[in-house]
Amino acid sequence: METCINLNDLNKWFGSFQVLDSINLSISTAEKVVICGPSGSGKSTLIRCVNALEPFQSGSVNVCGISVEKNGRNATDIQRRVGMVFQQFNLFPHLSVLKNCTLAPCRVLGLSDDEAGAKAMHYLERVRIPEQASKYPADLSGGQQQRVAIARALTMEPELMLFDEPTSALDPEVVTEVLDTMVDLAETGMTMICVTHEMGFAKQVADRVVFMDEGKIIEIATPEKFFSEPTHERTQFFLSRVLG
Amino acid sequence: MIDLRFYEIWREQIFVEKLINGIGTSILLMILGGIIGFIFGLALATARGSKIRFLRIPSATFIESVRNTPLIVQLFFVCFGLPMIFEYRWPFFASALLALCLNFSAYYAEIIRAGFDNVEYGQSEAARALGLGKNDILAYIVLPQALAKVYPSLVSQFVFLFLTTGIISEVGVEDLTWAGRYIADRNFRDFEVFIVLTIAYALLSVMFRGVLTATGQLVFPWYREK
Ligand SMILES: Nc1ncnc2c1ncn2[C@@H]1O[C@H](COP(=O)(O)OP(=O)(O)O)[C@@H](O)[C@H]1O
Ligand SMILES: [Mg+2]
């Protein structure tokens, strides 16, 4: 299988505090990986290193065949190939839904307005909200905003997608619509890393589940093994809390 | 009871002409000064927020110099000092306009900078995650949101600055204040002239505020007060 992401002995500190501790992880093209772990364990920092939003001090990060430079010098080369969805959506409030999706393809990939618009409408249809294209984000519900955020990332036609707790800020009743969208996306063969505590999603979609604690990867397993026979005590404790 | 004789102002056609010209000059100065000052202010705010010291220090120095000295001193410096140092001659209108632009730009710059600081970090981060470059993020993401946030402050500042512009009559620009003085010096009806000027300034302020607020609603239709 072709490798899409390779993290080799990745270490990162915030000042004297080590957020990432010797992370080794290799992810193949079209693989779906769910990352979970307690708050503050470094999950966000880890995926932010994957798309060069965070610099790191040692180790190597390889994404889409490009070696990410520690200081972020080639960050935009990575970022145009990697889509990201945030907990707080981070839609651009001053742009219509359509413009949210077309801005980067026009400016970064050099598409014309028409080309980008057609592509954006294609992905807005995929996330099932083409009818909202001319509205501003503030006029949409949280679930709709997050689906727009997914469409916005997809319009760049990324080689992989990162999700950082995409449903944590949502009202419970709209979580499903976003998860369904992510399941659909998974079925298209997209490479995905999802930080999430939605264990139902992990069981349904993930090829592997990664458990992190205190900046380390504690356990990596298939969902079947992860949920039925977690090997580490900390994983067991975490699962007992999350699964209730 | 004071004996008010407003007709002493309207009686002479030259007075009415000077008054109308004065209003026109004041409005023109404000429109030009407002627009040019805003563009300078934008550049200054960007420079002051820059990582490059060569840009940051001069812009900060300029902004603080302007904000900590009286407008009248700046006016004399630009209208008489600069032409002497660099040996050029400009009409008073142009010099006064330049002085106003420089003065406005410093105040605008500080307001705009506050706007930059208030745009959520997640916005530029999301833009970076899409592969947008620094300049695009500034122009397409941060700037529009920063301006929308501080637009009401910019409008208030504009109106406030308008009310200080009467001072340019000191260097012979024939604005509204100058017209008032011209008339009062000839008909000796200082009090009536004073009342007319006050009303004219108040009406113009209300007009500027109204036009600018309406413009804001057109330019930032998406903006919701948080
Ligand atoms: N910019 C930063 N500066 C200093 N510490 C940070 C910064 N960002 C995150 N941290 C710290 O790093 C740790 C891991 O953060 P994060 O990756 O966000 O964890 P998670 O996503 O698993 O909750 C936390 O203890 C957090 O306080
Ligand atoms: Mg997090």
From TrEMBL, chain B:
The keyword Membrane applies. Pfam families: BPD_transp_1 (PF00528). It comes from marine metagenome. PROSITE patterns: ABC_TM1 (PS50928). It is found in: Cell membrane. Its main location: membrane. GO terms for molecular function: transmembrane transporter activity. GO terms for biological process: amino acid transport. Keywords: Cell membrane, Membrane, Transmembrane, Transmembrane helix, Transport. This is ABC transmembrane type-1 domain-containing protein.
